[in-house]
Amino acid sequence: MKVEQWKIGDIKPYENNPRINEDAVEKTAMSIREYGWQQPIVVDHDGVIIVGHTRLKAAKSLGLTECPVLVAEDLSGAQAKAYRTQGFRYYGQRQTVSIAHEPGKA
Fold this sequence. Notes:
Blueprint: E1 3-7, H1 22-35, E2 41-43, E3 49-51, H2 53-61, E4 66-71, H3 77-94
Parallel strand pairs: 2-4
Antiparallel strand pairs: 1-4, 2-3
């Protein structure tokens, strides 16, 4: 697995991204500012985001010009679509869960 630094303008949002999560952008930007990049944006071989739309928006809001990207070269088109869809389902549900309800948290 190789993480690369890409210019933000070279990363293409997935045009059918169903998430409307503008409220998460500021929190994600604060996390990137405080902890740095702990999770890259994952793109397909064409540079289209598989997962990481919120991270891209956060990077733009911070005025960054580059960000870490993982190119999922080993995924077929069908696999990238399935992974993308799984991410939407998981994170869509996760947005409604409080951190107090995290496993292992009191």
